[in-house]
């Protein structure tokens, strides 16, 4: 059957279901995964289907259960953890920082930690400073953890298959606004695309170019891709042809693919809902400048979350999110 | 330490005020969120965790505290904030994201701060534990009389922060109380499913402190237990785990249909019970109860009107207050 248009949440769920059906080493754990199927529905109905041995509802003890997942992975399992919101990594950061990401290296390659950590990120719905962060740079900065961030249903399914077949610790991020879950309102059209019934993988470390263009490159990830696509539409009305580049994977990062995309336009706007400083936007620009600064016709621009905690009130949050209007303005300023 | 009729009428008033506040917020929460429910729509955006059912906890515990004492609350802070006397019109304005709000619209409902009454809250589970212990330590270092109270849910008692903090409190014999609000549920996970023992108060002996469980969701019983814990803390006898059997009547957050709760576990509303008790004991009459209700509601309605009429912050205000 073709023409199946799914949300990211449903597409990811298919990959996890497919792998769980076939591989006993995969099991799920997290808060409210049994009854609720995880906050983004990736484990929707799994409690009834796989039972409490393989879909483990945990207490609110992240240090404990994420550490346990790392141990189970070392002992030959492949845990899939739902950590709801990335803001909560504060309480379990040591496992990510010092165990899951470093054990393989410290053991000289003798111990593997194959586990997948599903996390929701992002704001735009007025949930204030402790429930709206992106923080992907905070986790991507740790060597030894792969970090992926699909922005559409096809990639979500293919990249989750890849994560579940990967022998490493993979942090699998989804921007809440792109997941297509009920409480975020009507799903964003551009996140939903055709998803094959069969299993397939989307490899990590390859950028995607959801819209090609010749005047300016809008490089982004997660929700930023969709804001960039909107901005490209706006820019087209002014006769500006914008290319949209979706990073998809932060670790590994496709620097070559990035350079070749940006070379085509020579003008770069990096869009990131994570904080501006010390993050992805700096990494993207530095990578290009290091590889070949001459591809740039103009100094690049960044449209990011400023370095401030995220305010609750809508008027203030709207003022700082990297929205299509702001992206388009930045692109125009480069023409 | 003994309860007067005036205090009990005060409890009832506080509880009614808190309830009417939550009910008003719930009504406002649904504005703009239908037909397609989305957290981010309408005049009251984001997640909303209401306190309906937990009002006796706020009323009973806060009545046993004095102005020097410090409080940290969690993601469900309204009943404690109301009982503590947090600036109420400004709290309403904060939930609406308005400029005169307690945090000028930066905090929202999970992040209510009112330093005038030593009140803080946080949306990260058990995050208030260690800061409260630190507040207790500060009072000791300052040679001031206050103690500190952390309000958390029973689900939060499984966080590392709970156990680490209590061990330190035990070692240092800090004037500290953790109020564990046992409403049975942490989102959709029941206490029995998440906690290896029935009562968190039994964990107290592991930390060298007192533990008490209050079985009823009744402000009088809660007050007495809290007063005992406060007296211990003030006397230098160390900390208490005070676990209170309470209720969560309207779901984890707005939008939670609670399909996971079996009918036999349906929770009881403590307010009509308390009202009936006070009337039976002659502390209230039908008329005086109605008068208290009308007065509390009028206060809430006036504060809500203030909040609705208040201006939004300027968009550029987002950049204020990053640093002191
Ligand atoms: C560290 C952390 N983990 C998870 C969450 C998500 N979360 C918010 S409230 C909640 C349940 C809390 O249950 P409980 O402590 O019993 O309080 P209640 O909601 O019942 O009042 C969870 C899991 C969070 N906010 N912080």
TrEMBL record, chain A:
Keywords tagged on the record: Oxidoreductase, Thiamine pyrophosphate
GO molecular function: oxidoreductase activity
Cofactor(s) listed in the protein's UniProt record: thiamine diphosphate
Taxonomic superkingdom: Bacteria
Entry keyword Hydrolase: no
Domain Transketolase-like pyrimidine-binding: 6-181
Protein name: Alpha-ketoacid dehydrogenase subunit beta
Organism: Sandaracinobacteroides saxicola
UniProt lineage: Bacteria, Pseudomonadati, Pseudomonadota, Alphaproteobacteria, Sphingomonadales
TrEMBL record, chain B:
Superkingdom of the organism of origin: Bacteria
SUPFAM superfamilies per the UniProt record, alphabetical: Thiamin diphosphate-binding fold (THDP-binding)
Swiss-Prot/TrEMBL catalytic activity: N(6)-[(R)-lipoyl]-L-lysyl-[protein] + pyruvate + H(+) = N(6)-[(R)-S(8)-acetyldihydrolipoyl]-L-lysyl-[protein] + CO2
Cofactors: thiamine diphosphate
Keywords, alphabetical: Oxidoreductase, Thiamine pyrophosphate
Domain Dehydrogenase E1 component: 47-315
Stretch forming the signal peptide: none
Stored Pfam families: E1_dh
GO BP term, example: pyruvate decarboxylation to acetyl-CoA
GO terms, molecular function: pyruvate dehydrogenase (acetyl-transferring) activity
Record has Oxidoreductase as a keyword: yes
Function: The pyruvate dehydrogenase complex catalyzes the overall conversion of pyruvate to acetyl-CoA and CO(2). It contains multiple copies of three enzymatic components: pyruvate dehydrogenase (E1), dihydrolipoamide acetyltransferase (E2) and lipoamide dehydrogenase (E3).
Protein name, per record: Thiamine pyrophosphate-dependent dehydrogenase E1 component subunit alpha
Species, as recorded: Sandaracinobacteroides saxicola
């Amino acid at each position: 059957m073709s023409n199946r248009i799914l949300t990211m949440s449903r597409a990811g769920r298919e990959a996890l279901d497919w792998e769980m059906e076939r591989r006993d080493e995969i099991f799920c754990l997290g808060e409210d995964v049994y009854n609720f199927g995880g906050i983004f529905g990736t484990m929707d109905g799994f409690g009834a289907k796989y039972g409490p041995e393989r879909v483990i509802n945990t207490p609110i003890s992240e240090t404990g259960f994420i550490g346990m997942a790392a141990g189970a992975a070392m002992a030959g399992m492949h845990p899939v953890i739902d950590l709801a919101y990335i803001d909560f990594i504060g309480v379990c950061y040591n496992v990510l920082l010092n165990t899951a990401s470093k054990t393989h290296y410290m053991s000289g390659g003798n111990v593997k930690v194959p586990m997948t950590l599903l996390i929701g990120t992002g704001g735009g719905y007025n949930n204030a400073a402790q429930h709206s962060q992106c923080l992907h740079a905070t986790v991507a900065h740790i060597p030894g953890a792969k970090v992926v961030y699909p922005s559409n249903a096809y990639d979500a399914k293919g990249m989750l298959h890849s994560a579940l077949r990967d022998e490493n610790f993979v942090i699998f991020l989804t921007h809440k606004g792109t997941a297509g879950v009920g409480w975020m309102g009507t799903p964003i059209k551009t996140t939903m695309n055709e998803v094959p019934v069969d299993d397939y993988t989307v490899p990590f470390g390859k950028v995607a170019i959801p819209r090609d263009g010749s005047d300016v490159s809008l490089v982004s990830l997660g929700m930023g891709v969709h804001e960039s696509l909107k901005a490209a539409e706006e820019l087209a009305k002014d006769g500006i042809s914008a290319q949209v580049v979706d990073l998809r994977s932060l670790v590994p990062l496709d620097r070559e693919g990035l350079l070749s995309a940006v070379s085509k336009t020579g003008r770069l706007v990096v869009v990131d809902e994570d904080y501006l400083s010390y993050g992805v936007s700096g990494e993207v620009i530095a990578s290009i400048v290091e590889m070949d600064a001459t591809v740039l016709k103009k100094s690049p621009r960044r449209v990011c979350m400023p370095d401030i905690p995220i305010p609750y009130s809508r008027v203030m949050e709207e003022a700082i999110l990297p929205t299509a209007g702001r992206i388009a303005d930045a692109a125009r300023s480069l023409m | 330490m003994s309860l007067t009729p005036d205090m009990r009428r005060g409890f009832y008033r506080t509880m009614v005020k808190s309830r009417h506040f939550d009910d008003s917020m719930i009504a406002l929460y649904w504005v703009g969120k239908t037909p397609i429910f989305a957290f981010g729509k309408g005049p009251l955006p984001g997640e909303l965790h209401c306190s309906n059912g937990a009002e006796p906890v706020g009323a009973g515990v806060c009545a046993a505290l004095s102005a020097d004492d410090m409080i940290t609350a969690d993601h469900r802070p309204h009943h404690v904030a109301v009982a503590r006397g947090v600036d109420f019109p400004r709290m309403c304005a904060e939930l609406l994201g308005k400029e005169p709000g307690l945090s000028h619209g930066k905090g929202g409902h999970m992040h209510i701060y009112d330093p005038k009454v030593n009140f803080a809250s946080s949306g990260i589970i058990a995050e208030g534990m260690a800061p409260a212990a630190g507040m207790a330590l500060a009072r000791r270092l300052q040679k001031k009389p206050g103690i500190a109270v952390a309000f958390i849910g029973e689900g939060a008692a499984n966080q590392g922060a709970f156990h680490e903090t209590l061990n330190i409190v035990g070692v240092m014999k800090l004037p500290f109380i953790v109020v564990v609000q046992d409403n049975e549920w942490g989102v959709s996970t029941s206490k029995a499913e998440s906690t290896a023992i029935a009562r968190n108060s039994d964990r107290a002996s592991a930390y060298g402190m007192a533990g008490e469980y209050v079985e009823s969701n009744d402000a009088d019983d809660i007050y007495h237990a809290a007063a005992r814990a406060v007296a211990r803390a003030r006397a230098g006898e160390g900390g208490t785990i005070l676990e209170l059997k309470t209720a969560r009547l309207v779901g984890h957050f707005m939008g939670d249909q609670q399909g996971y709760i079996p009918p036999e576990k349906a929770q009881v509303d403590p307010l009509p019970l308390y009202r009936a008790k006070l009337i039976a004991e002659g502390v209230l009459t039908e008329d005086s109860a109605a008068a208290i209700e009308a007065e509390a509601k009028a206060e809430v309605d006036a504060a809500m009107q203030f909040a609705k009429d208040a201006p939004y912050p300027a968009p550029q205000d987002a950049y204020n207050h990053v640093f002191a």
